[in-house]
Design a protein that fits this description.
The chain is α/β, with parallel strands linked by helices and about 475 residues long. It has three domains: about 10-140, 3-Layer(aba) Sandwich (Rossmann fold); about 140-175 and about 210-290, Serine Threonine Protein Phosphatase 5, Tetratricopeptide repeat, CATH 1.25.40; about 300-475, DNA Cyclobutane Dipyrimidine Photolyase, subunit A, domain 3 (Orthogonal Bundle). The protein is built from 22 helices and five strands. It is globular. Bound molecules: flavin-adenine dinucleotide. Flavin-adenine dinucleotide (FAD) binds next to helix 10, helix 12, helix 15 and helix 17.
Length: about 475
């Protein structure tokens, strides 16, 4: 396992900085360390076959990553350097590249998922057999998994005490972006894969945010100036645009979580509520580190035996946004159109899939990973296990969201549903969240006949709730 310890006053002739999900120059401890200790610094990016074609392929994410990496290359060129590109298995291409440029070390930002650990272990071993080493630094999280530990000396399984302990830890200062980087002239820059190689279109595959660090920093600046203070009151409003929309930037490391946290941390309910969400991100990454098995099965072992429904029509209706529940459909269509979904909507559709349809949360997790630009193993898995009640949350399993009440509460004017479900345009607000209750005359007047212009609900919430309670009690008590 690579160490996070910067370790003494060692100096290197040449250091490779291997960028992964830390595609930025500001507050990049691995890059800063390389610059301060090495005569030459060689930036590298690897298009990893396993991630491009692996368990979670996603054009939105690959497109955003590719364009952000290209913009990182540009930013490096502005400083006298460039991003070297290789394609293949990191365990082969990274040691080969390190040998090619005569590097003593390869520096990375430490990463936490099972694949990342395996990959870095293999790369580290291969480098060592060649007399070089892999050094991991912080940067993807604010605090490392070893640093946030309970009084009993182990990891936390509940968020609130984790948050309390997390906040006690000192925050380091954020690092500036380097002004210039010395580059040896000889290294082959490599060939950037084409969009066709990456199996993504030239243009953004959906209505995605502007890629790259600069755009992310602009978003952050705007958010801190004009969104943050009202976060606590607007964050759950589905139509309000009241959240930061920085999740893809945090996932790809266009922004440093430490910098975001430090700049957001100030007096007020908005900043406090916002900082708390950033700690949820840390929590789920720590859970993933301590319990890598969550990527395959439930955090709470008793739910291993759940009798999930295999109804393929239900699942396809959920994916397509045609369940007949307007708020669920609006959210699923928002995902397809933008590669992002509001957090409250993620909770509603997650509860609907796992409780109303009784479909395995792992199918929802996979669908989200296929479309989210912010698709993040730790946060997505944590979110899904939370809604499915199989995860770290101490609440009992019977938290089942009523999609109509959720919609009335968090989309009170119907603006979210109307934006994404145009078939319901003419439906009056009083019926918008449960259009099946319209009489025949009302349907005709609204220009929306249920079953023809918009689907009948695929489940009856009251019945589905009873079915879910029975299924969850069976495994809990069995
Ligand atoms: C079923 C489900 C799946 C999810 N999948 C993902 C995912 O793949 N990637 C992802 O980044 N988030 C995921 N989340 C968490 C959350 O929905 C998103 O982070 C948030 O909607 C992103 O929008 P934002 O940047 O405007 O969030 P804001 O409300 O502005 O929050 C700021 C940042 O805090 C972090 N954050 C906020 N809420 C959470 C949370 N509940 N858990 C972990 N981190 C959080 C994110 O990094 C986010 O960008 C999921 C939640 C659920 C319920």
């Amino acid at each position: 396992m690579p160490s996070s310890d910067p370790g003494g006053g060692e100096r290197w002739r040449t250091a490779v900085v291997w960028f992964r999900r830390d595609l930025r120059l500001h507050d990049h401890p691995a890059l800063a360390d390389a610059i301060s200790r090495a005569g030459m610094v060689v930036p590298l990016f690897v298009f990893d076959d396993a991630l491009l074609g692996g368990r979670w392929p996603a054009p939105n994410r690959v497109w955003f990553m590719d364009r952000s990496a290209r913009l990182l290359d540009q930013a490096l060129r502005d400083r006298g350097s460039r991003l070297h590109v290789r394609t293949g298995r990191p365990a082969e291409v990274v040691p080969r590249f390190a040998a090619e440029v005569g590097a003593d070390v390869v520096l990375v930002s430490r990463d936490y998922g099972p694949y990342a650990r395996l990959r870095d272990g293999q790369v580290g071993k291969a480098l060592e057999s060649d007399g070089r080493s892999l050094r991991a630094r912080r940067g993807i999280l604010v605090h490392e998994p070893e640093e946030v530990i309970s009084a009993a000396g182990g990891p936390f399984s509940v968020f609130t005490p984790f948050h309390r302990a997390w906040r006690q830890l000192p925050l380091r200062d954020a690092l500036d972006a380097p002004r210039s980087i010395d580059l040896p002239g000889s290294a082959d820059p490599g060939t950037w894969p084409s969009s066709a190689d990456l199996r993504v279109p030239e243009r953004p595959p959906a209505d995605l945010p502007e890629p790259g660090e600069e755009a992310a920093r602009d978003r952050l600046g705007r958010w801190l100036r004009s969104g943050l203070d009202d976060y606590h009151s607007r964050r759950d409003d589905l139509a309000a645009d009241g959240t930061s929309r920085l999740s893809q930037d945090l996932h790809w490391g266009l922004l440093s979580p430490l910098e975001v946290y430090r700049r957001a941390k100030r007096e007020g309910r908005g900043p406090a509520a916002y900082c708390r969400q950033l700690v949820w991100r840390e929590f789920y990454h720590h859970v993933l580190w301590h319990r890598p098995g969550v990527t395959r099965g439930p955090y709470l072992a008793q739910f291993e035996g759940m009798a999930w429904s295999e109804d393929e029509d239900d699942f396809q209706a959920w994916c397509a946004g045609s369940t007949g529940y307007p708020v669920v459909d609006a959210a699923m269509r928002q995902l397809m159109a933008t590669g992002w979904m509001h957090n409250r909507a993620r909770l509603i559709v997650g509860s609907f899939l796992t409780k109303d349809l009784l479909i395995d949360w792992r199918r929802g997790e996979r669908h989200f990973m296929a479309h989210l630009t912010d698709g993040d193993l730790a946060n997505n898995n944590g979110g899904w296990q939370w809604v499915a009640s199989t995860g770290t949350d101490p609440q009992p399993y019977f938290r089942i969201f009523n999609p109509v009440l959720q919609a009335e509460r968090f989309d009170p004017n119907g603006a979210f549903v109307r934006r994404w479900v145009p078939e319901l345009e003419g439906v009056p607000l009083a019926r918008l969240h449960e259009p099946w209750k319209m009489s025949g005359d009302e349907q005709r007047a609204a220009g929306c006949v249920i079953g023809r212009d918009y689907p009948s609900p695929i489940a009856d919430h009251a019945e589905a709730r009873q079915r879910a309670l029975a299924a969850y009690s069976a495994v809990r008590n069995g």
